[in-house]
Structure formats: structure tokens, C-alpha cells
Amino acid sequence: MVGQHSYDPADGFPRVMPSLRYDDVGRALAWLRDSFGLREYLRWSSPDGVVHHAEMRIGDGFVELATATEEQPSPRTLGRVPGALVVLVDDVDEHHERAVAAGAEVVSPLEDKPWGLRQYTALDRRRERSVPADHSAAKHK
Predict the structure, then answer these.
(1) Is the pTM for the entire model greater than 0.85?
(2) Long-range contacts: 8-17, Cβ < 8 Å, 24+?
(3) The domain spanning residue 85 has which CATH number?
(4) pLDDT per residue over 66-100, tens digit each?
(5) Nearest to 67, CA basis, from 32, 26, 23
(6) Which of 17, 36, 71 is the last residue of a domain?
């Protein structure tokens, strides 16, 4: 286990945490770290070394990764992507470069949006949409 923490919101844990299902949580940890800059916070593995549950962090946000099951399949198993994970980063241009260099499939270009975000959309290894953005499109003009 990488770390332990309290799940109590009174201790600062967020009240909402996305939970994503992967066929290979260990590969997902490495790819999300290398492509999108998330850092591993917690890992639970079976005695044979297979990672079944992990948590990653970016800034003050958490995301849980868990092994896909029949009851909670991965998007790859479903054949479709049910949503997107929006991540606010400090510099979306730098983030975009890093993701592309790591092999992320960009499906909508980096651009300023009329609602004030500068963002792009990429697919992660499980074909889930990630939407990295920064909070001020105006600072890029």
C-alpha cells in the first residue's frame, strides 16, 4: 500500500470521488501518471501482485481505480464510453504536450471554449474520455 488516509470529509476528503473500472489497474496507474500527471496515492494488491484498487490524486481531487467486474464493467467491455472526467490543470497547453508525447489519443483539439475554459479531450487506455482544462481561456490569448 502506498499510503493510508481517512475517508472522513471532516478531515478534508472530498464528498464526491469518481470511480473508474479498468481491466488492468496496474497499467492504468502507470499510464494516467505518465500521460496526465496524476500521482498514485493508494494501492491495494493481491498477494500475486495484481492491483485491484488504487487511488490517484491531482491537486485536491481524487479518482478511484478498480478492477472491472461483470457487475461494474470497463468501457472496453461495454463497447461505449458513458461519460468524461474533467480535470482542471495549471497549464493545459503543457498538459496537452505531455499527453500527446505519452501516446494519448486526442479526439477534440486544444482550444478556448466560450464558457471560459481552454481544454481538449483525449481518450485514456480504457477509451474513457478525459477533458483536461484550465480555468481561464483569456490567459492564453
Answers:
(1) no
(2) 13/62, 14/60, 14/61, 14/62, 17/55, 17/62, 17/63, 17/64
(3) 3.30.720.110
(4) 998 888 888 777 777 666 778 888 899 999 999 89
(5) 23
(6) 71
